[in-house]
Each structure stands twice: as structure tokens, then as C-alpha cells.
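Encode chain A's predicted structure.
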Amino acid sequence: MFDILTLLQCLLPEIKVRTMRQLSQIIMAMLAMSGRVTMLGISRWTLSGGSYRTVIRFFQTVIPWATVFWVFFRRHLFCPNDVYLLAGDEVVISKAGKETYGLDRFFSSLISKPISGLSFFTLSLVSVQKRHSFPIQIEQVIKSDVEKSVVSPIPEVKPQEKRGRGRPKGSKNKNKQEVIFTSELLRIQKMINELFKLIANFIPLTYLVVDGHFGNNNALQMARQVKLHIISKLRHDSALYIPYQHPDPNHRSRKKYGDKLDWRNIPGAYLRQSSIEEDIKTDIYQMTLLHKEFAQSLNVVILVKTNIKTNAVSHVILFSSDLDLSYEKIIDYYRLRFQIEFNFRDAKQFWGLEDFMNRGQTAVTNAANQYFLWSTYLIIF
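Encoded structure for chain A:
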């Protein structure tokens, strides 16, 4: 158990000696304690010199957590021959009361409805070889006034305001690369830029892997602005088009979109792999397609699963902005994104992310970050 304290010696240049002593007391208590992980609970399991007031002092200390995570990762977890992906996701925890910093209503995917609680967005380095996620930056989500505002109802269209089909006269084409980012995308972009400054090209990062919530043109443009390729998932009913092929090379047609893709009848030329396992047939297709909401072509991978006995069919649409990425890597990299969910699970179930009762901004930040740091320890031991 005391070997853990030895691993933390690399953090001394970044945090004060007094803070390191307090952190050591908290670590020993959290590894031995049972029950809810609160400041009072931690103080009851500390050794000599670790009182409740000592625990309070630690949680009220400003700590450069992003630097702490990076130094610890570079010293103990980094592998020079490995390939790392940058994954991002949001975790929501329930919280009662009214005084906790950042308390608001956030959508919880676990119970499929908004709840009162806190939300944290996490950037994580995912190892392709070790198949593990290492949290590297955690930031609390504070909703802006625009995000809190209620969506206004759709105004009623008066009879004289109705117009015929087609484009209005005089309308111009819009540059889809010039988008207005939401507060969420601006926050993520800022986190990525700060991370790049911290790692200073120590690790070459190429891909940003996010879930289907970011399967849109705005998220893609945000990723391209920070020089990353995005890997995500599209809606199952997305309208995808095959690029128009000019029958005559001298033809000057401006037509861009060809036939609309029907995922139930994809041409066999796009089939890359087919397999059958336990009466489930899986067909994997890869192609370069167009979407009218996106500014560029997409490298699309469609997985079609068919139950041989019942003929039930379902499909998943993955995509990447990197047109040269193989279908195997798109599927594998998106599958690796789920490793960040294990960090959320460990932080909630074993390290007290759902238990802490801190209310101030600094105390909430310290609580959340240290629980994610301990979830990383599970990978080592």
C-alpha cells in the first residue's frame, strides 16, 4: 500500500509539500475506508496527523490538476511505442441541495431524463495497445445563460407568410465551414487547446473520438480547427448521398449529390467484410459519402446486422473526417471510446464521485479530480 505514496513523488515539483502530506493521508484513508466517501468519512480513517480540519484544508487548496494528471501519466503510464487517441465525454452525477457550485439540471443517460446534479466533461488519452483510458483533463460544466434559457415555441406561420417550395429568390449559398460554435463546443475547444499547450507535442494526437451527440458538422469543424480528425457516430436515419459521377468528363454540371443511399440495399462494391456468429450476420460497408449538413465528404462505415432466424435488421453508421482511415481502425477506435465510461464507473462506485458533499468551487473541483485520479490507479495495480 505504501508503494502508492512512492509513485506520487513525481508530483512534488507541481504541488506543495504540505499539500502532498495531506494528500498522502487522504489516500491511505480512502484505500482502507468503507461507506460513503465524504470529508468527514475520510477524516475518521486517517492516520495520526490527519484530522477533519486537515481534510478541509486540502479540499480548499487550489491544485493544478491538469498538470498533475499529465505529470503522473508521463512518468508512470506513457508508452513510447503506443498509439493514443483523444476521447471526450460528459459524466453527470446526482446532487441534492441548492448551494453546491455549478448545481443545475443535466440530462442523465442512465435514467434517460434530466436530473438535479453536477456535470463534468472529461478529456482522456486512450491507449490503443493497452486498451485503457487515462483521464487527463476534467472541467466542470457550468451552463451559460443561453443554455439555461427555455427554447421558445415555434412561431405560428400566418397565411400570407407561407411561400412555395424551393429556395427563396435572391438567397445565397452558405459556407458550411463558417459555423457558430455553441457554448459546449467552445468549452471543449478551449480544453483541447490547453491540453496541447501542456503536452507540447510530446504525444502526437490525430483523432478526437466522441459519441453520437457530436455527430454533426459543428463538432467536425471544431475538431478540424484544432487540427484533429473526428471519429463519431451519425443518426441511424441520416440522409447520405453518393457523390455524383459525371458521365462526360467535359461536362460542366454543378451537380454534387448523386443517389441517396439506402442502407438496406447498399451496392456490393462497398462491402468490406461479412461474417456470421450465433445466427447474427454482420456486413461491414465503407464508402465516401456526402451529407447536406456537412461541409466536406465523410468516410462512412455502416455495420448492418441481420438475425438469420427472424430476419430482423439493424444498423449503425460511424464516420470520420479522415478519408484515408480504414474501416477496421474506425470501428476499433470508436469501440475504444467506451473505455472512458469505465473511468466514470470506477470514480462513482469505488472512489466517491457520487458521495462527496463539498459545495465551494475549489472543493468541488478537488473532489472530482482526485476521484478520477484514483480511478487511474486501478489500471496500475
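The two ends are 10 Å apart (CA to CA).
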